[in-house]
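Thread title: Can someone regenerate the structure for this chain?

I was given the following input by a collaborator and told the matching C-alpha cells would be attached. They weren't. Posting the sequence so someone can regenerate them.
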Amino acid sequence: MNKKEVRNRLKDKKGFTLIELLVVMVIIGLIAALVGPNIFKNLGKGQQKAARAQIELLGQVLDSYRLDVGNYPTTSEGLNALITSSGAEGWDGPYLKKTKVPLDPWKHPYHYQSPGTNGDYDLFSYGADNAPGGEGDSKDIASWE
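Best answer:
Regenerated them for you:
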C-alpha cells in the first residue's frame, strides 16, 4: 500500500472530532445542572414521607401492644419491647416482622418516650440532621402532628 492509499483510507473513516465531543459534553453538563437540583429536592421530600409512614405504622404496632399488655412500653423498654418480651403479662409478640426496629430514612433510630409530653407516647425523628428543630430535610417528624 502506498502513502496515497493510506491517506484515502484515513479520510474515509467516520468518527467524531474533538470539537463535536466537547459540544456534546457541554450539553450533557447543562442538562445535569438543570435537572439535578430538582431530583435531590424531591429525594428529601420522599424521605420525609417515608418517615411519616413508618411512624404511623409503628404507632399502629404500639396500639396492638397496648391492647395485649394494657399499656404502652415504657421509655426504658423502648421500641425493642415490640420484638422481645420484657416479661409483660399478655405480651403476644413479636409485633414487628423484622428482628430489629427500623431506622428512620436517614439511618438514625426513632426517638420514643412513654409517657409522652404530647400524648400516651411520643414517637419522632429529628430528620436529616438528627437534631431538634430544623427546616427542609432537617425538619422534625412526630407522631402527634
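The helical segments are 3-12, 18-69.
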